[in-house]
Amino acid sequence: MTTTSLTGQVLHPTDAGYDEARSVWNAMVDRRPALIVRCGTVTDVVNAIRHAREHDLEIGVRCGGHSVLGLAVPAGGLMIDLTPMGGVTVDPRTRRARVQGGALLGALDRAAQRHGLATTAGNVSHTGVGGLTLGGGMGWLARRFGLSCDNVVSFEVVTADGALVTASRTEHPELFWGLRGGGGNFGIVTSFEFQLHEIGTRALLASYLFDPADGVAVLEGWRELNAVAPREATYFASIGADGVDVGFVWVGDPERGRRLTRDLAGLGRTRRETVREMSYLDLQTIDDAVDGHHFRRYWKGLYLDRLPAEAAAALVERGDGAEALRPTMSLQAYGGAIQDVPEDEAAYGQRGTLFELVAAARWDDPAEDADRMAAARSAVAPLTAYSSGMYLNTLSDEGAAGVRRAFPPAKLARLAALKRSYDPANVFHLNQNIAPA
Ligand SMILES: Cc1cc2nc3c(=O)[nH]c(=O)nc-3n(C[C@H](O)[C@H](O)[C@H](O)COP(=O)(O)OP(=O)(O)OC[C@H]3O[C@@H](n4cnc5c(N)ncnc54)[C@H](O)[C@@H]3O)c2cc1C
């Protein structure tokens, strides 16, 4: 048997830096790979895949490490750590960015904003471009410019047999289709080429906290304001122990955004009002601390296609767990340019979504694990009646049933056929897996 030598920085369990490299965002994830290969080049990635296959080691692929299940970390397997490949270069003339496969969102935002440019990226800057884009990629610019995956012009990918291919509209077009929403199933992306947009550098955040007793009426009013909102505005809501917080983020001239605030403030008696102008870069890091590392985490996500009063009541209720254990329920509005993209254009499967819901639990004490997870499940259960599906990137422990809810059946069948072409042995299976058909 041939043996491919590993290149890059190879970490064994006894090496300094091993524990740091295997830690990911969710502190519940405590798995020990046999080897971690910190890849700095495409060749390192190719060699790592070949070596893992020759030695029958399961492969985990790490970019930002934000998969809630910690899918990047294989127990006893080989973890391909892309974080040394974190570079971003921007060409302001063509408005394109080249982003290495291990880059974090913050690196992309910073490099693009030097030129007043940006593309859709998520809301927390330490999330990976890799996982986020491959599963879709929702952010404050999506209602204007589509999801992150809609803004990819080409991918450079190492496939399961170690070949380096470019996927674009003209090269490997079916792979290009599948990588835009089908997750990490088809290969390891070593470089993304993104279309950027001129957005300036300014943003506005407006949020109003209301008493939970007024929560249903407030959410219904907020839903109606969202229905007529310009694309620069992305409405959000966050329902937690301190009340019902509704608002919007505006990217662009803050003065225009301010015009929307009066209607929101008028939804009821506010307990707290926040209207803040800030730079786009500050907006993109504002949740970095609250969504920081080292906590135990559990998420349950759903896509909602309507929000009647009964659903609003369930959101305000937040399940039947003890109050201190109930999750925070967050909603973010979709629509706009996300829906302009034809359904068949990319693998991403849920363009008709009205709101994305995430029930998020965060705690420290392992003794609370079971109760926290049960409370989050009970908070989301009554809302499934209003759900059109699920977002691949916020699936947690739903398994194959969750993947089936992320795609319409015909799309899932097309993805399974693509998987058969590019990864028939299911080498890349530590992900929200699409089995080869
Ligand atoms: C705090 C936080 C905030 C978030 N905010 C948003 C948001 O605003 N919008 C949104 O859409 N989502 C958001 N998400 C969800 C996020 O998109 C997913 O958790 C995503 O999987 C994270 O990607 P990652 O690269 O950080 O994670 P990782 O755990 O490193 O990777 C997850 C999976 O993606 C695949 N993968 C990653 N990189 C590559 C690559 N280069 N090539 C091939 N496969 C790869 C692998 O299968 C891997 O298992 C958020 C998650 C968290 C924890």
TrEMBL record:
Its cofactor is FAD. InterPro entries: BBE, FAD-bd_PCMH, FAD-bd_PCMH-like_sf, FAD-bd_PCMH_sub1, FAD-bd_PCMH_sub2, FAD-linked_Oxidoreductase, Oxid_FAD_bind_N. Transmembrane segments: none annotated. The keyword Oxidoreductase applies. Keywords: FAD, Flavoprotein, Oxidoreductase. It comes from the Bacteria. GO terms for molecular function: FAD binding; oxidoreductase activity. Residues 29-199 form the FAD-binding PCMH-type domain. Belongs to the oxygen-dependent FAD-linked oxidoreductase family. This is FAD/FMN-containing dehydrogenase. The lineage of its organism: Bacteria, Bacillati, Actinomycetota, Actinomycetes, Micromonosporales.
